[in-house]
Amino acid sequence: MSSLTGMNGEAVAIPDDAMQALKAGFKGPILTPDEPGYDDTRKIWNAMIERRPGMILRRTGTVDVVQALGFASQHRLLVSVRGGGHNIAGLAVCDGGVMIDLSLMRGVWVDPALRTARVQAGCTLGDVDRETQLHGLAAVLGFVSATGVAGLTVGGGFGYLTRRHGWTCDNVTAMEVVTAGAEVLRVSADENADLFWALRGGGGNFGIVTSFEYRLFPVGPQILGGAIAWRGEDTRQVLQAYRDFSARAPRELTSVAVLRNAPPAPWLPKEIHGKPIAALFVCYSGNVEDGEALLAPLRKLGTPVADIVTRRPYAQMQSLLDATQPKGRRYYWKSHYLAGIDPVLIDQAVDHASRIKSPHSAILLFQIEGALNELPARHSPAGNRDAAYVLNIAGSWESAQDDSANIQWARDCFEATRTCSTGGVYVNFLTEEEGADRIEAAYGRPNLARLATLKQKFDPDNLFRHTKPVGA
Fold first, then answer.
1. Structure confidence at residue 134 (pLDDT)
2. pLDDT the model gives residue 274
């Protein structure tokens, strides 16, 4: 007899014959706490998340998902779903219940003629970029190649191509999903359209997506991109220039401002390591010659300490920030959407960048204005169609004894910049303790009300509760 945690936190006894039946019908590995591979699988990117599932079901196909959900539903077990394991709140890992791990499902099938890709839900962004770039195509994905496509997409998703083409979820044409009732559905604008709407930003509240179909766009394989860095004393000048430059930039150009202490990266001179810097990461996905002329004034700003903007493969650009986000550090984020960059925001960013507690923490401004603003807020749950930038106050450090100081730094910066916010927030950047008010900020009241209605329709028993909840 085994014991697992139930949906309401109670212990549930699982008869031996039920466990044997599960193992007989399940193709992928089943890991319990005493088996090799269990710890590696349960540990995710954010080391602040320290939970231990009672059992990990590593699926290899949709049939495994059906089996896993049937088992969990029958015994009313607590369920979490892991894709890339990159969510800041650690939604992938539950305590004592069943983790359904998608990470073995890594297939990507590209149709270059139709400019589409079918992508299994265990893929990382790097998996997709690798296959699509073979054809000079790209999906609208995020900034860190180790991120899982599933969590990114069902939470909205944004990256270097968002200014041109909108949220990641705006560019999904269809999905295969297994519902709480273990029913396999294809969802699109023409099939199960209400569920298709909910899954484009509504998170993991409605089912387990097993594959996505993405619209692809011609990009690269060579783009103009990289980073320019200045000394910390130039931060105000850099942010003012960034505000003006980014507001005029064509949609082919996306830039990200980063305030932090310089890491020991080979592209930065040794004498600047550990000292405050302001950096701009830029990606121009149009004609490279046009990009050279466009970026010339920015590269002449002040006295940069480093400039690695060059022609490079788009897939390389997509992984340029990877080293700043390694698995196993402790992470805590606070975030706002911004309609613009006003003087108060610049003042507060300069101030709080000077108070950073960890050599790994940063204040980031992601430029997203463009195509997403052309659709109405009700188009998808991702909403926030009034946003032009994302401010992310990204705490990152090594030791648990430093939790309090780093968390407080992030919270102080968040409160100081609150007046600059649209009032909205990106749901994938919500930390573990952020609750109903911040979830409403992520979706807006009308979208949240519709999501709650659809939650009752597709998951009335709230099987998918280990997520940022929208009702039920």
1. 97
2. 97
